[in-house]
Amino acid sequence: MENKTNVRAFLNNATVKKGLNLTSISNALESIKKGETDLFNKSVKLGALIFSTCEWLKTVKAKELLKSNGLEWKQQDLIKRSFDLYGKEIKKAWFYRLQKVGKMDAKIKDAFLVACNKIEELKNSPNISIDELTKFENLVNYDAKKGVTKTLLNEAIDKYVKLFIDGKQEVEDVAEAVETETSEETETGEAVELEKGTKLMLNFKSKDGSNVVLRITDKGEIITTNSDSQINEAIDFIIERRMMKAKRNQAKKTLSKGGVKIK
Fold first, then answer.
1. Angle between helices 92-103 and 130-138 (to 10 degrees)
2. CA dist list (Å): 79 to 41, 56, 96
């Protein structure tokens, strides 16, 4: 079992503090926590710090300092012990996403922002986040010899914009279906009333217990903090329910023709 005194001694070492970027990461986390202004760029900078930290842990110097303090740390140990000790919480999944962004070629980040600008030019609101940046990177076909070329980046930009517009249309189609449902009275007899400027308000409890909230404004802007997988889960649920309702209605019609009365 690790000695807490040794852990503190290791983390308080000047060389370790610099190598682990503890002060910079702590400040970056605090800045992100305070508000969502320029959240994307702040997250990208934090990703660079996280990646640098993980690379430092692989150095001979880091291994020597760990060994001299009787410690055997890997990345997951860094997540738990370093930041918790300094009162900064960082989830494992987010840590690894930030690390991936920190490792990413700067040209991919720039190309992603170009794609977002194109989406805005088409009168849509892009989701400028590190999760979307990661999705964009997956569309880039790396050339083993030339690396990330301008041609490949332009192809990725076109793909991403098309996928975004197609995906938005799918959400709007479901929104129209939900709007039809919610225009009817609820079981309590009260009509569903949406706040001013809202075309659709979707609230859903996912299988993992997370709250999924999506709002579409009168201007067609999609506002949500949830992931695509969570939104898709909600969409699948709605579609499934509508299909079930359609089947029930069809069954009622069929049985009614046979003289069976159904409420």
1. 50
2. 22, 14, 10
The pair of three-digit structure tokens given for residue 236, joined into one six-digit string: 């699948």
d(CA 250, CA 262): 12
Bridge partners of residue 212, in order along the sequence: 204
| Cβ atoms within 10 Å of 208's Cβ, excluding its own | 7
Q: CA nearest 207: which of 187, 190, 230, 240?
A: 230
Structure tokens given for 36: 């969502």
pLDDT in tens, 85-138: 555 667 778 888 888 999 999 999 999 999 999 999 988 888 888 888 988 998
Pull the structure tokens for residue 12. 């308080």
What are the boundaries of each domain within the chain? 4-103, 106-244
CB 81 within 8 Å of CB 7: yes
Residue closest to 140 by CA, chosen among 166, 108, 180: 108
Nearest to 222 by CA among 100, 86, 128: 128
Report yes or no: 211 and 201 within 8 Å, Cβ to Cβ.
no
- Is the pLDDT at 3 greater than 60? The verdict is yes
* Alpha carbon separation from 6 to 66, 203, 242 (Å, rounded): 9, 48, 60
217-246 pLDDT, tens digit per residue, is 777 777 777 777 777 777 777 776 666 555
